[in-house]
Write a structure and sequence with these properties.
The chain has about 120 residues and is mainly alpha-helical. It folds into two domains: about 40 residues, no CATH class; about 60 residues, no CATH class. The chain has five helices and four strands. The strands form two sheets. A two-stranded parallel sheet has the order 1-2. It has a two-stranded parallel ribbon with strand order 3-4. Helix 3 crosses helix 4.
């Protein structure tokens, strides 16, 4: 599961790496295209993500998280989305991120981190 914010957040992170010279523009284009296939699916495969909209309870939880966990807005939305998914389905207990502050907050919330 992923918040609908990922639709903008993931390409933003990829293109930022390209702008600062850590990733070539052709590699960035390829990664963004691959993400979009994962997000939307294509003729050969369905989307790999269940995209979660942002209802008011998720936004309210995210607003609390920016205060209590000192997270950036987009990170708080991602964690609030994961928390809502876990409430709906307790087997949703894993959290994937490379952002260290978001990983720390997710771990403090009891999520299993990917990558470990």
């Amino acid at each position: 599961m992923v918040s609908c914010v990922a639709r903008v957040e993931v390409p933003s992170a990829i293109w930022r790496k390209s702008r600062i010279g850590e990733l070539g523009s052709s590699d960035a284009s390829l990664l963004v295209a691959e993400f979009e296939v994962d997000y939307y699916g294509d003729a050969e495969s369905p989307p790999r993500f269940a995209v979660v909209a942002l209802p008011d309870p998720v936004l309210s939880d995210a607003a609390q998280l920016v205060a209590t966990r000192a997270l950036k807005a987009s990170d708080a939305v991602q964690l609030a989305t994961a928390r809502a998914a876990r409430i709906a389905d307790p087997s949703c207990s894993s959290f994937a991120s490379f952002d260290s502050e978001l990983r720390d907050a997710a771990a403090a919330d009891g999520f299993d981190l990917i990558p470990a």
